[in-house]
Amino acid sequence: VTIGVPRETRAGERRVALVPKVLGKLSARGATVVVEAGAGAGALIPDEEYTAAGAEIGDPWAADVVAVVNAPSEEQIGRLRSGQVLIGFLSPLTDPQIVQKLRGAGVTGFAMESIPRISRAQGMDALSSQANVAGYKAVLAAAEHSTRFFPMLTTAAGTVKPATALVLGVGVAGLQALATAKRLGARTTGYDVRPEVADQVRSLGAQWLDLGIDAAGEGGYARELTDDERAQQQQALEEAITGFDVVVTTALVPGRQAPRLVSAAAVEGMRPGSVIVDMAGEAGGNCELTEPGETVVRHDVTIVSPLNLPAAMPEHASELYARNITSLLELMLADGELTPDFSDEVLARSCVTREEEGS
Ligand code: NAD
């Protein structure tokens, strides 16, 4: 079986689906990897590193399996043929047309977003691996834009108090944001609508902000709030946010617009020089004044909404993603043959379209 690794073409993307380090595991299972020339360039991996690890340089779209980071463009889908397997972030919930087109082309697609969040599949959980990168980077962006120190400083010129940082939405990205802000010396607080994360927040040395709303939904995700709950939450947050130098927001509900947590009034209530990093920009943003992809200053508060944060750390983001893809491939690859067992929950749930279904 051959596995193709294309060069990613989405604007600003610097990640690559497989890195040389994982190729040994794939060749041990009888797979040959075909890398497009320059596929690793964004992550600073030259073609020679791939060939030294046993890969060929060639047309990745002709391979039996194509591994990508981002869903393919229309033109790229046009290069796929019936019976091929495509693995990557295929956005089945946010852009269902892509899956439709893959189905039309007779391609079997596995969406990394749809890997079940169960213990056995943790090694394949690309949402988590990339959220970790994003949570870390978001805090660095906050520090970059802050007019104040994160750590407490005791200097000959006097003492500086530590910054206070609030993380709204404490899933994987939020936990990493709390840990990173703590490492930089901030006093940290976490908030979520899933009360079960309170202990995880405290274990990172952060305080837990309790606003009395329980919106734990299915599968460990949050559900959408009712209108009443949303109003109550915005009001309570408006008061709570005032005291923080830094707010990092990560709140998401799968397949929905990001919940609005931070109102314009809440921003106005913050101290001048404070920073909000809104990690939910791709889903519309958690803050009313967010402009996705932009950095704006409103009421003397800097609101940063970076898109595709994992691409800003392409080396480690690619390495972690490549391990996720490899773990998934190992589940269906033996003796050079690809034999997915669709009675396996992980494959059944991540498979978003299958060749036999036809168009
Ligand atoms: P996510 O990116 O979907 O959402 C981020 C956070 O936003 C979540 O914690 C969510 O509860 C929160 N949120 C949503 N609406 C909110 C609101 N109105 N106000 C405040 N917060 C709100 O989440 P994620 O990081 O993908 O994690 C989702 C779940 O998956 C978690 O339970 C996590 O522990 C679990 N998980 C399990 C595994 C595993 O067992 N293999 C791996 C990773 C994650």
Automatic annotation (TrEMBL):
Pfam families found in the cross-reference section: AlaDh_PNT_C (PF01262), AlaDh_PNT_N (PF05222)
GO MF annotations in UniProt: NADP binding; proton-translocating NAD(P)+ transhydrogenase activity
Catalytic activity: NAD(+) + NADPH + H(+)(in) = NADH + NADP(+) + H(+)(out)
EC code(s) of this entry: 7.1.1.1
One GO-annotated biological process of the protein: NADPH regeneration
Domain spans labelled Alanine dehydrogenase/pyridine nucleotide transhydrogenase NAD(H)-binding: 143-305
InterPro entries reported in the protein's UniProt record: AlaDH/PNT_N, AlaDH/PNT_NAD(H)-bd, NAD(P)-bd_dom_sf
Residues covered by the Alanine dehydrogenase/pyridine nucleotide transhydrogenase N-terminal domain: 4-134
Keywords assigned by UniProt, alphabetized: NAD, NADP, Nucleotide-binding, Translocase
Enzyme class: translocase
Gene Ontology cellular-component terms listed: plasma membrane
Chain's role: The transhydrogenation between NADH and NADP is coupled to respiration and ATP hydrolysis and functions as a proton pump across the membrane.
Protein name as annotated: NAD(P) transhydrogenase subunit alpha part 1
Organism in which the protein naturally occurs: Pseudonocardia ammonioxydans
Lineage: Bacteria, Bacillati, Actinomycetota, Actinomycetes, Pseudonocardiales
